Amino acid sequence: MAVLGTVYVVGIGPGDREHLTLEAESVLKKSEVIVGYTLYVDLIRRYFPDKVWITSGMMQEETRCRMALLEAAKGKIVSMISSGDSGVYGMAGLMLSLGTAYPEVAIEIIPGITSALSGGAMLGAPLGHDFAVISLSDLLTPWERIEKRLRLAGEADFAIAIYNPSSRKRKEYLKRACDILLLSKAPETICGIVRNIAREGAESRILTLRELRDTEVDMLTTVFVGNSETRIIDGRMVTPRGYPL
After folding, report:
1. Percent of residues, the chain, with pLDDT higher than 70
2. Containing H/E element for 97?
3. What pLDDT does 244 receive?
4. Domain boundary, last residue among 70, 89, 113
5. Is-contact 191 178, C-beta < 8 A?
């Protein structure tokens, strides 16, 4: 079957233009329609004012994907945006799954800078060695599985980037995660938190795992937990790879 249109699944990074890759910006410029979650659309709409924008709210990911595919099936160039990277807790997997029903639509994945990287840069170099990325959201993943992943990552002495650490309905989840990590990590383990990465009001803080346990965060925060060798160097969080210092 001949291809009629294309959906680009685009990671837009944290939302400021400086963190938008050249490839992502090029794709967005040539797109006729841009589809996304309302919050993410609001981050970049001003950079591309001449586009047709289609938005929807949280928990409507499948609806957004189908809207993008339907527009592309009309012969249009469409971008579906995700914050950070399109394949890291983004829309790429769902789009590829749903796209099998639209053989006339080409789907291309455009990577972006995920918050483990942009947030890590604000703190220093917290992910300089082996690391794990774990989301505390149990909307799509059972909490029991999240607990197991936290426990095993802690036992393996990974540095850990934690996404979706808290929300109005999950205020105690980060504390519960820290309690699990404290079973294998020392209370003095160096940790960091970053909020509003590369946006107005961006802030970061370095603290210990003991202190992190009693710290309130929100969904705009990414949490970093160091490994046993993570240290503070000139006020920056650094997980060394093994180079002599």
Report:
1. 98
2. helix 92-98
3. 62
4. 113
5. no
* Separation of alpha carbons 9 and 28, rounded Å: 10
Confidence of residue 1 (pLDDT cuts 50, 70, 90): low
> For position 2, what pLDDT does the model report?
72
**Are 24 and 78 members of one domain?**
yes
**Percentages (nearest 5) of helix, strand, coil residues in the chain:** 35, 25, 40
Asked if residues 82 and 20 have their Cβ atoms less than 8 Å apart, the reply is no
Cβ pair 102, 67 in contact under 8 A = no
- Give Cα 173 distance to the centre of its chain: 18
- Is 245 domain-assigned? no
- CA–CA gap between residue 36 and residue 65 (Å, rounded): 9
Query: Is pLDDT of 245 > 60?
Result: no
For residues 20 and 42, state if they share a domain.
yes
Rounded to the nearest 10 degrees, the angle between the axes of helix 143-155 and helix 173-181 is: 40
